[in-house]
Every structure is written in structure tokens, then in C-alpha cells.
Amino acid sequence: MTTESYAQSCPENIGFENGNFQNWKLFTGVLSMENNQTSFTLNEVAKPATGRHTIISKKNLVDAYGGFSLIPPSGGNFVAKIGDNGTGSQVDGISYLMTVPADRPDFTLTYQYAVVLEDPDHEPYEQPRFIARVKDVEKDEYIPCVSFEYVATSSLPGFKKAEGYESVIYKDWSPVTINLSGYQGKQLLIEFISTDCARGGHFGYAYVDINNVCGGPIAGSTYCKSADALNISGPSGFQDYYWYNADRSVKYGTGQSISIKPKPADGSKIVLDLVPYAGFGCPSTISTVIKGVDYDLKVLNKDVVCQNSEIDLLSEKYILNKSADFTYLAYEDKDLTKQIGSLVKITGNKTFYIKATNNKGCESIVPIDIAVYEVANITVNNPAAVCYSESVDITKNELVVGEMAGITKTYYTDEAATQVLADPQHIKVSGRYFIQFSNQFGCSKIVPVEVTIQEKPILKITNPKAVCQGSQIDLTAINNFEGSDATFQYSFYEDEALTKILSNPSKIDKSGTYHVKAVSAAGCIVSGQIAVTISNPPVFTINQPATACYPDKVDLTNPALYTEANGHFTYTFFNDETLSSPLTSPKAIAKPGTYYVKATNESGCFSSAKIVVKYNEAPKLVLNAPRAVFDNEFIDLTVPEITRGSSPFVKVTYFEDQYLKHPLQNPARVNRAGVYYVAIQSANGCTSSAPITVTVLPQPKIIVPTAFTPQKETNNRLYPFLVNVKQLTSFRVYNKWGILVYESAVLANGGWDGQFKSKMQPLETFSWFAEGIDLFGGKIQSTGKTILIL
């Protein structure tokens, strides 16, 4: 146990330890200037103004300009921020109305502040500022020696320039003690106010934290008798401290806090001279009489509770000699920097600290150990993974680590323990399950357990390719199991029950179904079957192709040539018996001879045989083209003269097309020019065919125009047109009197020009007569009339 001296607790939530502004009033306002003076009026608001009244609790936050922590190291858990870095001549404030206890003639209040102000180098009354003041409500006056105003240009030590912000200054956390001695029973209004500059272009804001203990101006004057030294402290916020005995014959020391050892006798008077900073407070002398208090805090040494239960550390169950004269606080660290509420949730074994303080400053600190029942220390090892065909039993005691005496277990599928696991002894699905351990005191703990059911490993079997008799198959070849689990170890058997192991699975020479057992790295077993095919060579017969006729081709690939006895085969063709010279065109064999065919089955086994191609000679066909005729005559293709010179034949046919598909209807009376086809067949059935050209010409004609115009640019000559006439022998023109007016045999002069004896003939009808020799030497004559048009 250790003892120190401090003051009693302050009014409720004056230090914002409820995490809000409970019991505080909030204000906003605007600055105004008149006659070189700045004034403002504050208006109360019902709730915190966003960004201007802020409660801060996160201890890792720092100020954006000063870089200092927003929670003071020796303060509480919550801090109030007043104002922001916005501009516009804003004023923000908070106030707390308190009554000094009537039985407390000596009373102090300690607060800590940190300030961030822009320093725009305005007039002092225009500068941003922070104001801390206390008003005597009865007198409606601010108490002068405890009210302070921190201006951006203040000479108060501790202000620094913000790095990277030329016009911003800041002051890190500093404590100030307000001496309110002599105000017992009176109402006092505590105010904190931050303002922008009066011109509206520069900001100011502050942080405030108030200590949770209040008392006389000198802390530690009432001490616990068990202490061997007197640790005594003066109020914060002064420049100098001087400590003396009652007649000033002994100077105990300087500084805000000193330790006097040996401690003065009970009833001794201690005198303290206080020297304030210039412009912040009044010089004063205060004193106190020391007094020993005989109080040793007694607590329950140790308690065992359920994990996650909530207990009241400040209840009489834990404080065994609780007294109304003392205030009790709980902490989670021995340095008393982490204060906690009386109710605390217990998650594990931990030592807490209880501090008892009376209104005279005597303090006693005692540790208390809180432990959780053994059920909280139970852990579970995850069961080993099992194969897909097995199940997991999570009820086995060997999975549990910890003392199980008096502990019961229940099993669930969810962490909230609402879905009971139906069969915890035979779990067949991987996943997270939960075991709840409970004791007779009602304590319980839910522990997860991971169950792993190995998935069925993949066994993929590809049957090996069939081989021919005399060859062997290797069942162990890795390509037989491509796509299977890479960790498999394989073994091979004759039977599905896997009892007859194959002695040499790499040399299988017998067709059949064999069996494979595959064991994965995790020990999981799967099995399957693998089929082996040892093929017989192909058995087939050849239906030799019929004797062909030139120039026909023989197709060796014709399926009708082959009769298969033991399967369906693929055929390839060769020139030689060694099957080394493949035929390039087995579909079109053009010459007789012995060829070789190779039949291959699906297993790659093959056999071969001869195939003989025979040819008969086709008859010789000679065609003599018939003479040309005019279209009033016919050509007879059936006369012997047409095929004179051909070899003997037994049949002759006539066709319109070269493919001999369309027979000529009447080959003895052909009257249409064109190419026809004649085919002869010999006694051995071979056929020859050839084209024959038939020429049919139009009948010969001599044509003379029925009119002509000798005096025009066109049609100015009269002459005959010859059709199939190879020679004109005479062309004569007669007038209506029968007089010959023009005659020519060769038309060398281009025809008759309409003149007779150098005189143009009149418009009238003339008669003409023409004579010539046709293409075949025949004589042709023609007459007619024509009109001469002038």
C-alpha cells in the first residue's frame, strides 16, 4: 500500500469525464469593434455547434498546427475544444455554474489548457485570444486574481511558432490552479472563451481539461500517518513558489511541489509565498496546517468471476471499509493514469487499483486482483484433417486443453450458440463449429473448432491405347492418370476388391479390365478400373476389281473391294510388297499391275494383301467428218463412211454430249450444226468415243435493196449482197422499157450510180437480174425490183 495527499472530487462532469457537455452551458457569438475597443455578446445554444464545441477522447490525435497531443499526459480521458480554425470574427464559449462547499474555506480548482492562435500583428485589442475567468454570481463580478486573458501577442512563457505556418503560434498543455478559498457556500461561474481576430480574417481556438479533484490551495497537508514523508504541492500556474515554516525560520524549498522529510509534527503550520507571471494574477501568501489521518483502505484481496462479466469495483463487496468521508476512484494501471468507471467488464485476469481520498487530501491506494474462472482458460486444438469418406468427432476430450473438472460441453454450428449441432461425433462437412464450456457457477465460454474433411481426391484414368498381339502395355505410365491428384501413389490389382495385386503392372500382355488403388498424400484412397486391349491383326479378303477398259481408272479405295472379318479397318495402298512406296493416287489407277493394300485396325495392328488391276484394250475409233450441207438438206451420221478406218466393233451409238448421257434422237437426219459424239463398243465390252463436227450452212442468197438514193450521202449505189455465194457472175439492171441501164460481173465500180449514158435516171421502178456460184459450186440466180429515189 502507498499513500499520498490530494484533494477531493470536483463537481459532476466538470472535467467532461462523462464524455459530453453535461452540466455545462454552450455559447456562440460575434466580435464587434467600437472606439478602438473590442466587445462581444454570447448567446446560449441548445446543443454543441458543429466544429466549435467538441469533446475529444482519442489519445492518438495531435493538433494540426502545434503537433501536441489533444489529450494532456496528466489529464483525464476527455477534453473540450472551444472554437475552430474558421474565421469570421467568431466567439465560442462554455460555462459551468458551481457552488463551493460551505464546509470548505480552502478550495482550489486546477485546469489545463492549450491554445492555438493566429498572430496577424493587429492592434492588441483586435488579436485572437483565449479567456479563462471566474465570476462571483452574487456580486456579478469577475474575480480579478483568478481571471486571465491569453492574447496572441501575450508574453506568457511557452508560446511557439507553428512549423510551416508563419502566422500561427501555439502553447502546449499548461496547468493553472484557481484559488477559490474564502468563497465557501457561494455560486461561482467558470467560463472559457475563444475568439477570432476582431477584423474577421484570423482564427483562434483552445483546448480545456479540468482536474477531477478539488480541494485547498495546498494539496497534501492532510496526510496518511503511515507515510514517512510529507509530499506537498501548491497551486499551478505561478512563476515562483517559496515554502517556509510558521515563523519563516526554516525554508523548506522552492517549486510547486516539494517533499519534506522527516515530516513536520502534526499541527505544524506551512507557509507558501506565490509569485504570479507578470499580468496574470496577484502575489499572495497562503498557509496550511498539516494533520495525519489514520486510514488504511482495505479491499477484497482477490475475486474470481465469469469471463466477460461486469462488476462494480467500488461496491462494498470489494471495498471492505468503505467510509462516507472518502471518495473512491478505480484505475487500471499502477501509475493511476487510466481511470475507469466503477463498472468494468472482466475479459481476463487483471490487477486493478482503488484510490480512496478524503476531503483533507489523505489518499490510500490498494491493488485488487480479479481473476476469471478456469473455464476462461480452456482452449481447443483443431482435430486432424480426415478423408472424404470419414467423419470427425469433436467431443473427444483429447482435443481440449485445460482443467475440465466440473465443466460441461455443448456443441453449436454458430458463434451465438443458437443452432445446436445435431451429431458432433460424426461431422462430415468441413467448417467452423463451436463448443460452449460451462461450469456450475454459470460461467461459460464459446471456443471455435475448425473441422477439415479432405475433399475426395481426383482420380482420372485414361485407358491406354490398344496394342497388337506380341506387344505389352505399361499400366503405371503417368499419362494413364493425367489430370489426377499429383500426390497419388498407385498400386494395381486383378480384382475389384483389391486383394490380388498384379505382379508386374508395367508389362501387361493380356486384354482385360484391371483395377487401380490411388493413395493421396493425406492418406485418402480412391480406386478405379483401367481397360487393356491387346488386338489381333486385321483379317480381311479382297474382292479383286473387274477388268477395266482403257482409258477408265480403277478406284482401289472402293469399300466394295474389301470384306472385313474382325473389325473396321483403315486402308492404305502401296506399289511394293514391303509397303515402303505409297501409291499417290489409289482412287485412279490407270495401268494394270499388282498393288498392295495395308489394313490397319484401331489398335494400330495391320496386315496386307495383293490387289490385281487388269485392263482390256479399248477399240480404235476413227471418225470422218461429213461434208457440210445447206440448211435445206440433212447429214446421215450412220453411214459407214463416218467410222471408216475404226477397229471392228459390235455397237455404235450417237450422243449430243461428251459424257454420253443424251442420245441423239435421229442420227441419220441431222440438220443442226454442232459437235456430236460417236461411241463404239468392242466385243470385250470396252467403249471408245470421239467428237464429230457437223456443218450446216444457210441457203445461198443474192439480196438487192428495194430502193436506193443515188443523189444522197448514203444508199447512193445499188449493188447485191451475197449470202454463202462465193462468186457473182452477173448483175444487170433494166428500166421499165426493158432497156439495160447497168451491167457488171465483179462490182469493181461499187454498183450502179443511177445514171445511164451519163444522165441521171428519173424516179421510177427498175428491174434487176443477178447470177452467181454458191460455196459448193452450184449456180444460183435471183431477180427483183428496186426504186430509184431522187
Overview of this structure, please?
- It is a single chain.
- The chain is mainly beta and about 800 residues long.
- It folds into eight domains: about 25-210, Jelly Rolls (Sandwich), CATH 2.60.120; about 220-295, Sandwich (Immunoglobulin-like), CATH 2.60.40; about 300-375, Immunoglobulin-like; about 380-450, no CATH class; about 465-535, no CATH class; about 540-615, Immunoglobulins (Immunoglobulin-like); about 630-695, no CATH class; about 700-785, Immunoglobulin-like, CATH 2.60.40.
- Helix content is about 0%, strand content about 40%.
- It has no helices and 62 strands.
- The strands form 20 sheets. Strands 3, 4, 7, 9, 10, 11 and 14 form a seven-stranded antiparallel beta sheet that branches. Strands 1, 25, 27, 28, 30 and 31 form a six-stranded mixed beta sheet that branches.
- A hairpin with a 5-residue loop joins β19 and β20.
- The protein starts with a strand and ends with a strand.
- The relative contact order is 0.06.
- The model is unreliable at about 1-5 (pLDDT under 50).
Q: Mind sketching the topology for me?
A:
Layout: E1 2-5, E2 8-9, E3 24-34, E4 37-45, E5 53-56, E6 79-82, E7 90-99, E8 108-118, E9 129-136, E10 141-142, E11 148-151, E12 159-161, E13 168-179, E14 187-195, E15 204-210, E16 213-214, E17 222-224, E18 230-233, E19 240-245, E20 251-254, E21 257-260, E22 269-275, E23 284-289, E24 291-293, E25 302-305, E26 309-312, E27 326-331, E28 339-340, E29 343-346, E30 350-358, E31 362-372, E32 379-380, E33 400-401, E34 408-412, E35 431-438, E36 444-451, E37 467-468, E38 489-493, E39 512-519, E40 525-532, E41 534-535, E42 540-542, E43 548-549, E44 562-564, E45 570-574, E46 593-600, E47 606-613, E48 615-616, E49 629-630, E50 651-655, E51 674-681, E52 687-694, E53 696-697, E54 701-703, E55 707-708, E56 721-723, E57 725-734, E58 740-744, E59 755-756, E60 759-760, E61 764-774, E62 779-788
Parallel strand pairs: 17-24, 25-31, 37-41, 43-48, 49-53, 55-62
Antiparallel strand pairs: 1-31, 2-16, 3-4, 3-7, 5-6, 6-15, 7-14, 8-13, 8-15, 9-10, 9-11, 9-14, 12-13, 18-21, 19-20, 19-22, 22-23, 26-29, 27-28, 27-30, 30-31, 32-33, 34-35, 35-36, 38-39, 39-40, 42-44, 45-46, 46-47, 50-51, 51-52, 54-56, 57-58, 57-61, 59-60, 61-62
